[in-house]
Amino acid sequence: MLGTAVSFTKSQQIARESLNIYQAYINEDDIMFIRHYGKFEGAESFNALLATLASNPGAAQLKAVCFDCRAVTEATLEDSDRANDYYLLKKLASYGQNVYSFKLIRVIDAENVVVNDILRERNRRVAKASANFESFDEVLSMSDGLKALALPADYCIEYPTEK
């Protein structure tokens, strides 16, 4: 079974003045890949995760989620509180997902220090609640991310084409 690809923008998500821009899909090994680009706002990773599960009804328990943040140009601390984390856990359970059962990987651009610091602070705030985000593995290249996911170095990530 091939992965199902989805791409979401403002009109398909929460109404905001700015865009939550990402591409996401679940591969045949039950690994979700989410690529963020542009301005990272609010609970964008949570939104991407939940929207991708919503578009894949009956998805098996995820083994991992890989967040590719190398193309993020700016980020905020908006929506990085504990209440958001509890909401995520409840929604994940409604999709038959247990956050404690999957690995979390974030791929960053080492030179994007300001964005990386904000993303780390977001994780620190959320990790104080109950989710698995304190065990986030952070890597500096997609090849390192693939290795952490036990995928071959030549694995092709099949993000959907942008609309």
What count of domains describes the coordinates? 1
The total of beta strands comes to 6
Spatial gap, N to C terminus? 24 Å
What integer value in Å does the Rg equal? 15 Å
Derived structural class: alpha/beta
CATH topology, anyone?
Transcription Regulator spoIIAA
State the name of the first-level CATH class: Alpha Beta
- Kindly report the name of the CATH homologous superfamily: STAS domain
Strand content: 15-25%
Overall pLDDT: 82
Overall geometry comes to globular
Order of neighbouring strands in the sheet with most strands: 1-2-3-4-5-6
Summarize the structure.
With 163 residues, this protein is of the alpha/beta class. It has helices spanning 44-54, 82-94, 113-127, 142-148; strands spanning 4-8, 22-26, 31-40, 64-75, 103-107, 137-139.
Structure, described:
This protein has 163 residues and is an alpha/beta fold. It has a single domain, classed as STAS domain (Transcription Regulator spoIIAA), CATH 3.30.750. The protein has 4 helices and 6 strands. The protein has helices at residues 44-54, 82-94, 113-127, 142-148, and strands at residues 4-8, 22-26, 31-40, 64-75, 103-107, 137-139. The protein has a 6-stranded mixed β-sheet. The longest helix has 15 residues, at 113-127. The model is unreliable at 1-18 (pLDDT under 50).
